[in-house]
Amino acid sequence: MSHWFHRNPLKSTAFTKFELKKVINKESASKICGEIRLRRSNFLDKLRSAANEPQEIESEFQQYLALFYGFVFDIPENGNTSDNISNSKLRYFERFVWSNSMLNINETIDVADSWFEVLSICVNVALWYMKRGAWISSKDEVRETEAKQIHSALRKAAGIFIFVKENIEKLNGMYEFAGSDMDSKVLDAYITQCIAEAQEITIARAIELKHKPSLISALATETANKYQCCDKLIENFNPLNFEKWRKYFQLKHRFYSAYAYAYLGESLLSEDKCGAAIRACKEGIQCYNMAEELCSKYAKSSGPGFVAKPEQHLFFRRIVPLLDRHLKKAEQENDFIYHQMVPEERPLLEEKASFGLAQPEPFVYPNKFEGWTIAAYKAFDISKTNIVVDFGKPKKGTKSLPPVKEEKVYETDKDPTNHSGCSIS
């Protein structure tokens, strides 16, 4: 099955030593730093493959953040860490260098701030969940259990992106890097894309189970509107980096608008409103033609990303016969029975679906690693260092980073055998 989802590249990062030689005065502190250093490298390496099991990725993710806890949050004398409010004394003692998923690989950001590390790691994990969903959807056949896995992966990704957005205020001055992964508009685009794609799963299942056309139309409308919102969020960024992503949003907006009108036409037919049904189907055909044209523009556009091929997908190809069938039936019944006027204005779509709207899965920072005892925290003695702390002031990195060598996502040329024509039914 041709790839249905567009995916942006993972963020690259520089190796971080976690040495803090002038701060560490006991073996317990040195052991924590060594374990963090090793786990970080191993975890980032696992993110290169969407074929890895989510349980393994989630476990590694939780364990890394738990180990990193003492670099982010204070561990008070009474040992009460339930509120996660106070900053760690170590927050600004290690520098982290990361690239951005949508900017040139040479445009890295260098920040001495542990929160920057946390949020950057979170973005990469959220991107991995998106890639996991695409990896599953590219199989020969995707059954109900796997469709649920795609839906879950996208909801988890959305929840992690929301966590990042809710905490970017902790990064002093990060907003100045337009188009970076810490830009609120970029994060909103990712969040909305994840929710829209999760709703695509719901639409495919609703079609497969032959739910009411009015429900399918409303879901398609909601999804089309979300893609339009994504496009608006990133419209002012550099087209050299963002054009391809925008074209993906635009073609998905037009495509799901076509589906919305197709099922609106079917719903109007069932109510014997043939004139309005004719107008709806013709509007759907126009939307499809625009989506088809945008597929060509998308393939030729500039910018990073793993390219989708929706025009080769059976779910995409199925919409024209569907629209033609509804239009032909509406015209025949109107000519023989109803003789209704075909309105010049396109019929209104129902923009609020009653069921099937996807919700993000909330993400919270995990509890601290058990090795972060009060004694271990005290083993980091910042009074013995003369390091000048810049308190997280970000700057553009001076060194470029190689792109992450991501493993290729499997792709088959077989069409699914189900009713909907979608591989995620």
Automatic annotation (TrEMBL):
Q: Which InterPro entries match?
A: BRO1_dom, BRO1_sf, BROX
Q: Which domain of life is it from?
A: Eukaryota
Q: For the BRO1 domain, which residue ranges apply?
A: 1-425
PROSITE patterns annotated for this entry? BRO1
Bias class Basic and acidic residues marks the residues at 404-417
Q: Which Pfam families match?
A: BRO1
Q: Which residue ranges are recorded for the region named Disordered? A: 393-425
**PANTHER family for this protein:** BRO1 DOMAIN-CONTAINING PROTEIN BROX (PTHR23032:SF13)
Family per similarity comment: Belongs to the BROX family.
Q: What is this protein called?
A: BRO1 domain-containing protein
